[in-house]
Amino acid sequence: MAKYSIDTDMLHLLVHSGSRSLGAQYLSDFVQKAQEKEQNSLHGHYGVDTSTDLFKEYIANHDKALNFAVRNRQLIARRMLHQVSEKDAESPNCLMDIHHNFMEKIDFKHVDSLLRARAGPDGKFPKEVPDKEEDSKSQVGWLHRKGATPTTHSPILVIPGSRGTLSYLVEVNPDVDYISGHSLAHGAGRKMMRSKAKSMFHN
Fold first, then answer.
1. Whole domain around residue 63: which residue ranges?
2. Which whole-number Å values give the CA distances from 183 to 13, 46, 63, 172, 194, in the listed order?
3. Which of 40, 47, 78, 119 has its CA 20 to 30 A from that of 8?
4. pTM of the model
5. Close Cβ partners of 161 (under 8 Å, ≥ 6 residues apart)
6. Does a structural domain hold residue 131?
7. How many domains does the chain have?
8. Strand runs labelled E in 73-163
């Protein structure tokens, strides 16, 4: 990991946190406003055209939540480092800071290949996809990563473990990451919903 300036003899701090419900509140407000405006509902989800003021308002709030998440992680890191070394807390060396559970505007022309690809005769995936004229055309849209982080923002990523399990530092393979929509799992997941866990462990 030397090429990424990661010293394996050093202790590294991993902070796994987001906007602490702020983003969820912005989304809830957006859905309510879309419903009030009688926008189309597909499978119970309300959406609006990207050219509308309501969408622009949501994206602005969405970006505020992402900024809050960055500052939240920075605050947690500084508080933790202060307990170990005040010097390091004043000038921490952040190797990466990647968002999860967010929307990003991307060009789907590469991701579209996945939709047309199927396993080849040998069972390997994906098989070679023939070039098509539409492949060269831009297909810009919004990708919502739920429980995922982008593989396009950093050459290395972390898959955080749950309490008591390992976390993994992985290297992005740019030749095949389109198979997963340029995304990677942002955590190990949970055995149960938070509400169920609270009901089991809280008196």
1. 14-94
2. 23, 25, 19, 10, 24
3. 78
4. 0.76
5. 167, 168, 187, 188
6. no
7. 1
8. 102-107, 140-145, 148-150, 156-159
Give SS3 for 140: strand
Peptide bond into 150 cis (omega under 30): no
In a domain, 135, yes or no: no
Instruction: Give phi and psi for 78, each to the nearest 5.
Output: -65, -40
- CA of 91: how far to CAs of 5, 59, 81, 149, 170, in Å? 16, 32, 10, 26, 26
Q: Which two tokens stand for residue 121?
A: 């005769």
Quick check: helix, strand or coil at residue 113?
Answer: helix
Q: Encode burial over 51-66: b for 16+ CB neighbours within 10 A, e otherwise.
A: eeebbeebbebbeebb
Please count the residues of the chain.
Answer: 203
| % residues pLDDT > 70 (the chain) | 78
Please identify which residue in the block is written with the tokens 């473990």. 161
Could you read off the pLDDT of 77-91 as tens digits, one per residue?
989 888 888 776 777
Kindly state whether residue 62 falls inside one of the protein's structural domains.
Answer: yes
- Domain assignment present for residue 130? The answer is no
